Amino acid sequence: MAMTETLKAIADPVRREILELLKQHSYSAGEIVDHFELSQATVSYHLKLLKQAELISERREKNFIYYDINASVFEDVLTWIYSIGGSHHE
């Protein structure tokens, strides 16, 4: 996992909102655009960065591409964070 790409991707509020949306169920790019007051190109850019960070995956069904959240990357990030803040010796 590229931790830098992951943390950069989740640093943006729009991308976090897309992840919150995908937490509920899969959406097509058009359905994601409908949730924002952003252009299709802007949403596509955010989806591209989320895919590069492996936070989401895509699957094609007929003429549509659907996006799903990739929970395993979040588990890796949480494991890393926990290892940093784990037990302290006094």
UniProtKB/TrEMBL annotation:
> Where on the tree of life does the source sit, at the highest rank?
Bacteria
**GO MF assignments:** DNA binding; DNA-binding transcription factor activity
CDD domains under this entry? HTH_ARSR
| Species per Swiss-Prot/TrEMBL record | Lacticaseibacillus pantheris DSM 15945 = JCM 12539 = NBRC 106106
Q: What is the name attached to this protein's record?
A: HTH arsR-type domain-containing protein
Task: Give all residue intervals belonging to the HTH arsR-type domain.
Answer: 1-90
| Keywords of this entry | DNA-binding, Transcription, Transcription regulation
Pfam families cross-referenced by the UniProt entry? HTH_5
Q: Which PROSITE patterns match?
A: HTH_ARSR_2 (PS50987)
Coiled-coil-forming residues are none
Q: Which SMART domains match?
A: HTH_ARSR
